[in-house]
TrEMBL record:
It comes from the Eukaryota. One of its GO terms (molecular function) is protein folding chaperone. Belongs to the prefoldin subunit beta family. InterPro entries: PFD_beta-like, Prefoldin. The keyword Membrane does not apply. GO terms for cellular component: cytoplasm; prefoldin complex. The keyword Chaperone applies. This is Prefoldin subunit 1. Keywords: Chaperone. It comes from Xylaria grammica. PANTHER family: PREFOLDIN SUBUNIT 1, PREFOLDIN SUBUNIT 1-RELATED.
Length: 127
């Protein structure tokens, strides 16, 4: 946390302004990365939902295969459904955690921008 005395202006503390700007830029980059990750997880979740829906329509004795590297392994339909359910739960948790991280980063970026504005207007603190 930094506190700038009332008599100190931006010209006397340029390193402080640069540091706050760097924090704002880093937050902005992290926000973009988090949004990309969140979108990817949501796509994966949607694919798992669609796959589960398609597999649910199949008879229980249908031959179902899962890709493992360059091979395919025959698995019962129930096992595939269980794997998809587990995958969807994990993805939901990931999306929720990314949403929390995104909120934190957006608040952090807003605070950095507010600090920059206060400093440029001659504000008292940059904490």
């Amino acid at each position: 946390m930094y506190t700038v005395p009332v008599t100190c202006g931006v010209r006397e503390r340029p390193h402080l302004l640069r540091e706050v700007e760097t924090q704002a830029i880093a937050s902005q980059q992290q926000i973009a990365l988090t949004r990309t990750q969140q979108a990817a997880k949501q796509r994966e979740m949607r694919m798992a939902q669609l796959t589960r829906t398609e597999i649910s329509a199949l008879p229980a004795d249908t031959n179902v295969y899962e890709g493992v590297g360059k091979m395919f392994i025959s698995l019962p339909v129930a096992d595939i459904k269980t794997k998809l359910e587990t995958q969807m739960k994990e993805l939901e948790g990931d999306v929720e955690n990314l949403g929390k991280r995104l909120h934190y980063l957006e608040v952090s970026q807003k605070n950095s921008k507010d600090q920059i504005d206060r400093m440029l207007r001659g504000g008292v603190s940059a904490s």
